[in-house]
Structure formats: C-alpha cells, structure tokens
Amino acid sequence: MKNLTSGLKASISALALLSAAPAALAAVSAPDQNLQVQHYSMVLGRDGVKRETTFTERLYRRSDQVWTERLIAAETTDAADGHDHSGHNHPDAGSSPMWVRRQADGSLDARLVERHQRRTVKVDSQYYGNIGFNGNWGSAFYLSDPQSLKNMRAVGAVKDGVQLYESKRGDLTVQVGWDVKGQYPRRVESFDAHGLVRRQTLVSVIAAPPVLPWKTLAGYAEIDYSDLLD
C-alpha cells in the first residue's frame, strides 16, 4: 500500500501545506462543482535524477459530500479487469475512487470504492495516511482549505474572478489562485528557491456527470478497511 500511494502523496503535498491541521470546518455555503484536477510534481534528487509525476483526477462535490477519482487509461483498466481479484485484499488507493461525507457532528465518513468487487471500504481516521488522505474536510471539499488562505498574503486585487495568495516558508514559496465565486483554487503551485522541487495543480470546471457517482452504488457491500489488514 505504501508504494501504491507514494506518488499521490508527493503530488498533492502543495495542497497539504495549506491544510496541515485537520480541524473541523464550520459549514460554509459553496456552490456545487464538477472539476478536473491536473497534478504535476518534479523533484531533482541529490543523485542528479529528475523525477516527474503527472496524473489527473475528477472531483464532484455536493453539499456534504465529495467524490475524487483518478482518470486511468482504458487499456490499464481492461488489463486489471482481466486479473483474478479473488485474492486481492488491500484496496488500491491510487485507482479506487474516494468518497467522503461530512456528518452532522463534523466527523467524516471516508470510503474507497472498489467497483470490480462491488463494495465500499470504510476507512477509519487512524488509517487515513494509508490512503493518502489528511483527514481535512476543507482540503477534500475545496481542494485547498479556505481557512488556510487567512494565513497567506493576498497579492493585488481580484482579476478575472481570481484572487492570488502567496506564502513563504524558508526556501519554499506557495501560491494559490483562488476562484472567489466558485470557491476552489484554479491553480496551486509550490517551488523552492533552488529549483529542486516544483509542484503544480491546475483545476478547471467540467460538465456534471449524468448520474452522480455515489448514486450508482446500490447493491454494493460495505466493509471496514481494518478487516482487510493482515
């Protein structure tokens, strides 16, 4: 599981910098969104090797729930479907959609969805790190927790509906282009002063799906992630 999620954790670290504390977020009115999220990360190691990671996700959010799903080439999916999954115990956190619901008391119900096994896997908070989830509702729903913007410097005025924010921590600079009306970041970028690390997330609006994905789970079994651990 660690190897499966390492790329995801590295690529979303710029977002995690903005929401390091998983505090409860008060209910905020925000519009429904259907978003495509493109991640890019580059790390230049001491060995001189440049390691780059790119992947794309789609995110659907409605009121108290959000669905995030990696886009995977059909050829890859077909090859995986051809394998025998009878002995597959651990969910693949990279390829399995994640469905998070915010309960009335502020707690989160986080699940991985395994379509090939027709089941949802409920993940308790102590295992969030295993699936690359930081447990912060703000970062899951908004991609960047709006509360974190209070600790950043607004750069200039709103332009084309976007307010630019920036913060610096040592050699690291983080910039967020926040869509004021849509309540999501159109761009999140972090980079160091030496050109050794760069991470970028670009977000765009897409059409809503004909049926929201969590409404297609009728008949799915429900199990706990802890039941799958060795």
Task: Break the fold down into its secondary structure elements and pairings.
Blueprint: H1 2-11, H2 13-17, E1 33-44, E2 50-62, E3 65-70, H3 74-81, E4 98-102, E5 108-114, E6 119-123, H4 137-142, E7 153-159, E8 162-169, E9 172-179, E10 184-192, E11 197-205, E12 221-224
Parallel strand pairs: 6-12
Antiparallel strand pairs: 1-2, 1-11, 2-3, 3-4, 4-5, 5-6, 7-8, 8-9, 9-10, 10-11
Keywords: Signal
Region (Disordered): 77-99
Signal peptide: 1-26
How would you describe this protein?
Residues 80-91 have a biased composition (Basic and acidic residues). Residues 1-26 form the signal peptide. Residues 77-99 are annotated as: Disordered. Keywords: Signal. The chain has 230 residues and is mainly beta. The protein has a single domain, classed as outer membrane lipoprotein receptor (LolB), chain A. The protein has helices at 2-11, 13-17, 74-81, 137-142; strands spanning 33-44, 50-62, 65-70, 98-102, 108-114, 119-123, 153-159, 162-169, 172-179, 184-192, 197-205, 221-224. The protein has a 12-stranded mixed beta sheet. A hairpin with a 2-residue loop joins strand 2 and strand 3 (65-70). The longest helix has 10 residues, at 2-11. It starts with a helix and ends in a 6-residue tail after the last strand. The model is unreliable at 1-14, 19-28 and 82-87 (pLDDT under 50).
